[in-house]
Amino acid sequence: MFKNMKIGLRLGLGFAVVVILLLVISAASYLRVRQINGEIEDMVNDKFPKTVHANEIIEAIDTVARLLRNGYIYSGEEQKKALDQIPEQRKIISENIDKLEKSIHSDKGKEMLKAVQSARGAYVGDQDKFLSLLKDNKKEEIVVLMQGGLRKTQTDYLKSVKNLIDFQTDLMQQSGKHADDLAGQTETLILSLSSVAVLLAMAFGWLVTVSITRPVSEAAGVAKALSQGNLTVRITVDSKDETGQLKQAMSDMVGKLSAIIGEVNTASE
């Protein structure tokens, strides 16, 4: 395999193989980390904000309920102060619902958001009845409304929002589990690739080393025999690289030395 390659080319090839293996490991690691990062970004930038918006809606609903109660209990300036804050809370709810409409894309999520909006309409309708009765100072009818329709629509409204929160929380847990699974798979993949890369690098390194050291060792043995005056040593040239060229030169040298010694012997005779 390596007999016809130059030694420099073999060493360069060995280095290239190691670099390629490192690139494969790096690319696999990078792609996996990007997948994990994508899952985390999805949780942080998409699913978690939705639960925040929904919780802000619940907080505003509770605030509205408290303001209605204060409007019923208080009178005069305190009553006006409580009732004047209701539009602000309704605005907070509307803004968060708008954000949810823009960020929810799944069919189930849209269906649940539609349920929230429907429940909100019913609850706002009962709020308006409450405010109308309060304006007319019909407190007995307000009590009936609070114990009946208003309580039910508020409960349904809160339940629909909590269902949406549970849905988004479940999606977050699924994303977290997927990210955790990806992390485990990435760890296994990197360990496997690293093990294979080490084995391949060792095998290739051994082949390259042997292809260089073995012929050099053979040439050294021939040189030693020649230094001891053994001109009958056999030199086998089996490659075209630098070691093969060295062996060929030594073979030519042995042939010439043998010819010279033969001529000297003839002259002596």
Largest sheet: none
- Put simply, the count of helices is 7
SSE pattern, N- to C-terminal: HHHHHHH
Mean pLDDT: 83
Radius of gyration: 43 Å
Q: Compute the separation of the termini in Å.
A: 50 Å
What share of the residues lie within helices?
over 70%
Category from helices, strands and their pairing: mainly alpha
Low-confidence stretches: none
The tally of beta strands, per DSSP, is 0
Assign an overall shape.
rod-shaped
Q: How much of the sequence is in beta strands?
A: under 5%
Task: Please give a quick description of this structure.
Helix content is 88%, strand content 0%.
Structure description:
It is a single chain. This protein is 88% helix and 0% strand. Helix 1 runs antiparallel to helix 2, helix 1 packs antiparallel against helix 3 and helix 4 packs antiparallel against helix 6.
Please render the helix and strand layout as text.
Blueprint (H helix, E strand, L loop, with lengths): L6 H67 L2 H9 L1 H18 L3 H29 L3 H9 L1 H79 L14 H27 L1
List keywords for this structure.
0% strand, 269 residues, single chain, 7 helices, mainly alpha
